[in-house]
Design goal:
Chain B: Keywords: Molybdenum cofactor biosynthesis. The complex is a heterodimer. Chain A is of the alpha+beta class. Chain A has helices at residues 9-15, 29-39, 41-46, and strands at residues 2-7, 19-23, 54-57, 60-62, 73-77. In chain A, strands 2-1-5-3-4 form a five-stranded mixed β-sheet. Chain B starts with a strand and ends with a helix. Classes of the chains: A alpha+beta, B alpha+beta.
Chain lengths: 83, 147
């Protein structure tokens, strides 16, 4: 499947771009992160501490076990600091 | 329910007046305005607020909807800015209206707690000491357990 992946805040800075299109067979968010980590050092660095990473699938917050079937957009970002 | 995500400044006084006007059954309006604060021991050149267009509006609407379901609100308003801001600038505001004050106060407090940790905004401080992404506080996450 083809996924649009978005990165925000320091994840965007570490990875070096705000979004990319990825072809993947990953079944869950966790599996997608493992694929991304294996790509290059900057990905491994960005995803080195998963306690500091939040995920949204199709703009809804979710966790590492969330399945990706039918998903179009996955976003990775640090804990939010609104207000 | 009114949700606005914008780069431009808003006029807090005007927004409060407009929000409070026009109803005869509302007995209480609570408003809160968040302001860019300079860090201690550093000169803040600017604060850059990044957000997730699309998800931001959606998350704010969900948070507002939760407040409306939970308390007896006549209306609620959330305005949140993004982009570069300087110390003293207004970042965001919430307003709630209800028949009695208890609901308006509680709902405004709830909106702020959820905005802090569940609305996709991130703040970067650019100071004379360097740049720094503002970290989420454990106390902000813990605050959600109150509700």
């Amino acid at each position: 499947m083809n996924l649009e992946i978005l990165y925000f805040a320091w994840l965007r800075e570490r990875i070096g771009h705000p979004k990319e299109s990825v072809e993947t067979d990953a079944e869950t968010v966790g599996a997608l992160i493992r694929e991304l980590r294996a790509r290059e050092d900057r990905y491994a660095l960005a995803f080195s501490d998963l306690d500091a990473v939040r995920v949204a699938v199709d703009q809804e917050l979710c966790d590492l076990d969330t399945p990706l079937e039918g998903a179009r957009e996955v976003a990775f970002f640090p804990p939010m600091t609104g207000g | 329910m009114h949700i606005r995500v914008q780069q431009n400044a808003f006029d807090y006084g005007e927004e409060c007046a407009r929000f409070a006007a026009g109803r005869t059954d509302t007995g209480a309006v609570v408003t809160f305005c968040g302001i860019v604060r300079a860090p201690e021991n550093a000169v803040l050149y600017r604060m850059e607020i990044e957000h997730y267009p699309g998800m931001t509006e959606r998350a704010l609407a969900q948070i507002a909807q939760s407040a409306i379901q939970r308390w007896d609100l006549h209306d609620c308003l959330i305005i949140h800015r993004y982009g570069p801001l300087t110390a003293g600038a207004q970042i965001m505001m919430v307003a709630t209206a209800s028949r009695h004050r208890a609901d308006a106060f509680a709902a405004a407090d709830f909106l702020m707690d959820y905005l802090k940790s569940r609305a996709p905004f991130w703040k970067k401080e650019i100071t004379d000491q360097g740049t720094n992404w503002v970290a989420a506080k454990d106390t902000d996450e813990a605050a959600l357990k109150r509700w």
